[in-house]
Amino acid sequence: MIKFPTKKRVDLYKNAVSPEQLQQDLAAAQECMFDAWETDDLEAVLKLIRKAIKKSPLCADAYSFYFEISEEPPASKISHLETALYAASIALGEDFQEYAGRFWGFVETRPYMRAKAALADALWKSGNFYPAMAHCREMLQLNPNDNQGIRHLLTSYYLELEMVDELTLLLDDYSEDMRPYLQYTRALLAYRNSTTDAENIAKTAISSNRHIPGLLSKCRLQPKSNSGYITLGEMDEAIDYVNHNMKPWIRTPNAIEWVVNISLVNK
């Protein structure tokens, strides 16, 4: 267990050092995190995270990465990740608004976006659904290009809560996105609404990842891939989609059988 700084500790540090020293300390801490991401040994990773926090309490990636690999329950992560987000905003300083709308295009913004994504995930998993979605929407406003795939998560959140109006608007905003996260959700909505071209929409979804209908037919969550990667059109992507979207498909009578039949006919 690593003892992370509180917001008060972050403020004390910010007020005690010059802006130049703050950035130097943060750069040194970030180097530790680059090493941590490339290290397989857990003890070595923890040492590097401790070193990063000691160098700079503003190193949001130290918080985010620790709580990514820790087995603590989501609810216990929330306050620490809120501090990480606060620290990352201080690190960005006055540049925050300058970067708005183009976040992730600047390396300096990425710790903030990683912390915000981690916080949204912890909030959702602990049952704080609406704050989680609010963070996702804010991230899409900061970075509409959405290099992190937040739109895919938000799509699953809206679908889970049957927020169909919000879901439809999001699908329209990313109408060019051909990934299965959006395509299969479009197919499910088309099936529910008995849309005349529902079958064609399903065929388009199936072409984006042919593994998904078979996994949906199992009606259970699937073991996650250990690779840490999502491969376009492959099984790890299918598992990720199904694990985030299984319930709405099951809740829709005959929807799984429908998409499975279409996939079998169009092999």
Characterization of the model:
This protein has helices at residues 7-16, 19-37, 42-55, 60-69, 74-92, 95-99, 110-125, 129-142, 150-160, 164-173, 180-192, 198-208, 212-217, 235-251, 255-265. The protein is mostly helical and 267 residues long. Helix 4 (60-69) packs parallel to helix 7 (110-125). The longest helix is centred in the first third of the chain and has 19 residues, at 19-37. The protein is elongated. The termini are far apart.
SSE topology sketch:
Elements: H1 7-16, H2 19-37, H3 42-55, H4 60-69, H5 74-92, H6 95-99, H7 110-125, H8 129-142, H9 150-160, H10 164-173, H11 180-192, H12 198-208, H13 212-217, H14 235-251, H15 255-265
- Approximate strand percentage: under 5%
Structural class: mainly alpha
Number of helices: 15
Element order: H for helix, E for strand: HHHHHHHHHHHHHHH
Radius of gyration: 21 Å
Number of domains: 2
CATH class of the largest domain: Mainly Alpha
Shape: elongated
What is the CATH architecture term of the largest domain? Alpha Horseshoe
Mean pLDDT: 94
CATH topology of the largest domain: Serine Threonine Protein Phosphatase 5, Tetratricopeptide repeat
**Main sheet specs:** none
The helix fraction, in percent, is: 55-70%
The strand count comes to 0
Instruction: Detail the poorly predicted runs.
Output: none
Question: Span from first to last CA?
Answer: 50 Å
**Subunit arrangement of the protein:** single chain
Brief overview:
The chain has 267 residues and is mostly helical.
